Amino acid sequence: MNNYPLHSATGWVKSTYSNGDGGDCLEWAPAAARRSGTVPVRDSKTPYGPVLAIPAHHWSSFVTAVKHGELRAP
């Protein structure tokens, strides 16, 4: 487990796949991911809410699946 503070990770970036009307907004912190090998992910509407810490190899697989249209919202 990594012990860096997730909420203070700098450089949160909103996903280009996020909904443009203010809903479904996902952010991730690439600089923190490079340092730790774990990708911090959060809901941009609640920046001090829960943060998921996803192993980088799982995050990469997820992003690839999204780019190829393999995942669809219900």
Q: Find the count of extended strands (DSSP E, 2+ residues).
A: 4
* Largest β sheet strand count, sense and barrel closure: 4 strands, antiparallel
Tell me the distance between the termini.
32 Å
Helix content: 25-40%
Overall pLDDT level: 80
| Strand and helix order | EEHEEH
Structural class based on helices, strands and sheet pairing: alpha+beta
Strand % is 15-25%
InterPro entries: DUF397 (IPR007278)
Domain DUF397: 11-67
Protein name: DUF397 domain-containing protein
Fold topology:
Layout: E1 13-14, E2 26-28, H1 30-36, E3 38-43, E4 51-55, H2 56-67
Antiparallel strand pairs: 1-2, 2-3, 3-4
InterPro entries: DUF397 (IPR007278)
Organism: Streptomyces sulfonofaciens
Pfam family, one: DUF397
Notes on the structure:
- The chain has helices at 30-36, 56-67; strands at residues 13-14, 26-28, 38-43, 51-55.
- The chain has 74 residues and is α+β, with helices and mostly antiparallel strands.
- It has one domain (11-67).
- The protein has a 4-stranded antiparallel beta sheet.
- The chain is globular, with a radius of gyration of 12 Å.
- The model has no long low-confidence stretch (mean pLDDT 80).
- InterPro entries: DUF397.
- Residues 11-67 form the DUF397 domain.
- This is DUF397 domain-containing protein.
- Pfam families: DUF397.
Short description:
The protein contains two helices and four strands.
Keywords:
4-stranded antiparallel beta sheet; alpha+beta; 74 residues; 2 helices
